[in-house]
Amino acid sequence: MDLHFGDSKPTDEERSAVDALLGPPESSWEGADRSDADLRWARGGREARDRRDLLLPGLHAVNDRIGWISEGALDYLCRRLTVPPAEAYGVATFYAMFSVRPRPATVLHVCTDLACAAAGAPRLCAGIEARLGPGSGVSVERSPCLGLCERAPAALAIKAGDPVRTAVSAPATVEEAVLAANSPGSAPEEPPAALAVPQAGQDGLMLLHRVGVVDPSSLDDYRAHGGYTALRRAFELGPAGVIREVTDSGLVGRGGAAFPTGRKWQATASQPDRPHHLVCNADESEPGTFKDRVLMEGDPYALVEAMTVAGYATGAHKGYLYLRGEYPRALHLLEHAITQARARGLLGDDVLGQGYAFDIEIRRGAGAYICGEETALFNSIEGYRGEPRSKPPFPVEKGLFGKPTVENNVETLVNVLPILTMGAPAYAEIGTGRSTGPKLFCVSGSVERPGVYEVPFGATLGEVLALAGVREGLRAVLLGGAAGGFVRPDELDVPLTFEGTREAGTTLGSGVVMAFDDGVPLPRLLLRIAEFFRDESCGQCVPCRVGTVRQEEALHRIVERTGADAADDIALLREVGRAMRDASICGLGQTAWNAVESAIDRLGAYE
Amino acid sequence: MTVTPLGIPRRMLEFTLDGEEARVPEGSTILDACRAAGKDIPTLCEGDTLRPKNACRLCVVEVEGARTLVPACSRKAEPGMEVRTDTERARHSRKVVLELLASSVDLSTTPEVAGWLKEYEAKPDRFGPDAARLNEEPRVDDELYVRDYDKCILCYKCVDACGDQWQNSFAISVAGRGFDARIAVEHDAPLTDSACVYCGNCIEVCPTGALSFKSEFDMRAAGTWDEARQTETTTVCAYCGVGCNLTLHVQDNEIVKVTSPHDNPVTHGNLCIKGRFGYQHVQNRD
């Protein structure tokens, strides 16, 4: 590889941000002063190239310190890692949270997605923009779902510097959001995660039973509330025993695809190729979804323990926790939890004195919904554009860094703890035959008590809505998120199980239950969904890249039309949607049309 | 015609292609098998010298048991697989993909597309006059080649040819995301400020004419480009001892562009800046 770097130089600040991550450069080949040794041999090369996966952390380092990524900073980072500048530019421009153009140090992300839009985000945006015009030192950006739907509308301020400061304002008023942007350091603290769990402290909870009960920053408190009994049990059972328990429990993935977890673990564990990797998908970006955030903020050690169990069972010694960039509080709590666990021998070379080595590294996403797709997530960690790979080969065979990888989302992993402590048979008795265990639902929109609810599989949609106190005049419920589907108010008896929703022609998806009353303009909502997918398409394959644009155009044309006036465009939507579902590379393109289609077919959106 | 090495013998596998038994060597793709059986499957991003990117999704076929359609160019044939290439479902996707492409970019210099549009009854203009298009001006940074991204279908072939698959210059990449994704050099700079070494291998693999020789671009603009009047002569490059083959495209006794045969076992269609562009002295008649 014969790399060409331009002559743009980093500023001292940019250089120091990169060096803080990578250490000082050793040779002039990677940006240090020239020494005698540089005339004899070149450093960098393969050794540096093997650290390609530090590209995304490097971009974060610069963006966190300066607020944007200049040519000089990008080239310097490329020198340090022997990454071609064109590729790094392609990566930097892929993520919404990065900018390669100058911008103010403070960025205020104002959520304009489904729940927030229904809660007045457009007014909030206009108010904020009126107050924080040009010259205010704040760049106001409209953001897809920030995962704060229970406190809609929401805003997230990020002020670059050393250290970077963040502040969340939700529910946001113009004054509070402006305050958060102007001085994130002194903005009022967020309410505890338990406020997002109306059931907090109730008996019978399995996944949420510690949220609001334990101090999320105290390992001792976690242990006092049953923490680390599952890992001890795992060591008693041995890796094969753990996989047997998980298989017998009937646990299936909670990320939306509902694949049997035990089978996935078994397939990875039995691969001869080494090393094996574990990836926790905490890139929760589905509009309307916030359960993983609440779990991570309310009970972070549970995830650390669950990842350790999963790593042990599948023969992985390294776990990557891919956390979405919009969750600063979850990041801090998990960083703290991992450090504490390491200090106490619960992570590291010899976990619990059992001779098993395991450690967890957090990788931050940077604003890309597509990175929740499992193979796109691998590319993102490896320092490439977050584009999905085509399958086969499947991750259990060739995943992260081309090695056998098991990837589970946060909720799936946290389910492993009760499976081990109560035993597979007891766990399998919860729920229904094919959908076992407890399930988390993110209820938001037109309800009295929005939040995360835990119910055993089999509860009906109406029962979950009743828990949250649905308001008068229910018009529709979005089930499963933007990639899910709408159901009518007369369909509330649909059982919330994988098989029950499938029979009803809809999906559980990521566990979103978003209620809309008749005050919500449905066509506008559908337009927002289409806009979301157009924004979030990676652009790799034609059906998704162009199809999402054509669909959004058609929905724009019919936003005020019904009946015969809309018929042609609805026919067009159907044709494009069918091709997207059939021919797109990944789930994003394949499901982008689901919600709109269901609104047309089940709600009669344009009749 | 050059001699193509046969490679090590491979076992044959059997599967069903449109209801008929097909026998192909292990490792063949469905597209290989289709071509061996004389079936014409449209594809734009597949390249004979590059690993399939399967980004255009034009070659999709139906595989029994698969939830979605499958790209024939990259999916390997498996024993017992049942593949149907010409179903209503596959044809529908190809039609829509052609419409989506033709409505967003200029395919006027993409060979075979006009025929496919007709065959699949694709109507690219049904998305209306306001359908988003790229609408970019050609970028002319130098005397060797032109980047006309209004014709770019993002097949990734130039990225792969410039990167680890052939040239190892890594001068081009995809930047941005979604409909705004574009082929770009670092910092979206002019080509002359980039890591480009002007080998022209990206032009060699470009399926749509988004990357072209300046000579061809100028002649097209002047209305003098006429492939019917061109002859092609393959010869050996005289610059060094590697032995690359050059195909000289000659119109009116002038070399108008230089390509290289893809079946050459040494270079597989790749050249360097001298072989590709250094022909002016041949026709210097002063």
From TrEMBL, chain A:
Name of the protein in its database record: NADH-quinone oxidoreductase subunit F
Q: Which family does it belong to?
A: Belongs to the complex I 51 kDa subunit family.
Among PROSITE patterns, the record links this protein to:
COMPLEX1_24K, COMPLEX1_51K_2
- Tell me the SUPFAM superfamilies matching this sequence: Nqo1 FMN-binding domain-like, Nqo1 middle domain-like, Nqo1C-terminal domain-like, Thioredoxin-like
User: For this UniProt entry, which segments traverse the membrane?
Assistant: none
Q: Which Gene3D superfamilies match?
A: 3.10.20.600, 6.10.250.1450, Glutaredoxin, NADH-quinone oxidoreductase subunit E, NADH-ubiquinone oxidoreductase 51kDa subunit, NADH-ubiquinone oxidoreductase 51kDa subunit, iron-sulphur binding domain
Kindly list the cofactors needed.
Answer: [2Fe-2S] cluster
The residues covered by the NADH-ubiquinone oxidoreductase 51kDa subunit iron-sulphur binding domain are: 523-568
Q: Where does the record place Basic and acidic residues bias?
A: 1-17
Taxonomic path: Bacteria, Bacillati, Actinomycetota, Actinomycetes, Kitasatosporales
PANTHER family annotated for this entry? NADH-QUINONE OXIDOREDUCTASE SUBUNIT F (PTHR43578)
- Taxonomically, which superkingdom? Bacteria
Q: Where is this region: Disordered?
A: 1-34
User: Which of UniProt's keywords are assigned here?
Assistant: 2Fe-2S, 4Fe-4S, Iron, Iron-sulfur, Metal-binding
Q: Which GO terms describe its molecular function?
A: 2 iron, 2 sulfur cluster binding; 4 iron, 4 sulfur cluster binding; FMN binding; metal ion binding; NADH dehydrogenase (ubiquinone) activity; oxidoreductase activity
> Which InterPro entries does this entry report, sorted A to Z?
NADH-UbQ_OxRdtase_51kDa_CS (IPR001949), Nuo51_FMN-bd (IPR011538), Nuo51_FMN-bd_sf (IPR037225), NuoE-like (IPR002023), NuoE_N (IPR041921), Nuop51_4Fe4S-bd (IPR019575), Nuop51_4Fe4S-bd_sf (IPR037207), Soluble_ligand-bd (IPR019554)
Automatic annotation (TrEMBL), chain B:
What the entry lists under SUPFAM superfamilies is as follows: 2Fe-2S ferredoxin-like, 4Fe-4S ferredoxins, Formate dehydrogenase/DMSO reductase, domains 1-3
One Pfam family name is Fer2_4
Record key words, sorted = 4Fe-4S, Iron, Iron-sulfur, Metal-binding, Repeat
InterPro entries according to UniProt? 2Fe-2S_ferredoxin-like_sf, 2Fe-2S_ferredoxin-type, 4Fe4S_Fe-S-bd, 4Fe4S_Fe_S_CS, Mopterin_OxRdtase_4Fe-4S_dom, MopterinOxRdtase_cofactor_BS, PSI_iron-sulfur_center
- Give yes or no: UniProt keyword Repeat: yes
Q: Would I find Metal-binding among this entry's keywords?
A: yes
For this UniProt entry, the molecular function terms from Gene Ontology, in alphabetical order, are: 4 iron, 4 sulfur cluster binding; metal ion binding; oxidoreductase activity
Q: Name all 4Fe-4S ferredoxin-type domain ranges.
A: 142-162, 188-216
Q: What is this protein called?
A: Putative molibdopterin-dependent oxidoreductase YjgC
Ranges of residues in domain 2Fe-2S ferredoxin-type: 11-89
Q: Which residues form the 4Fe-4S Mo/W bis-MGD-type domain?
A: 230-286
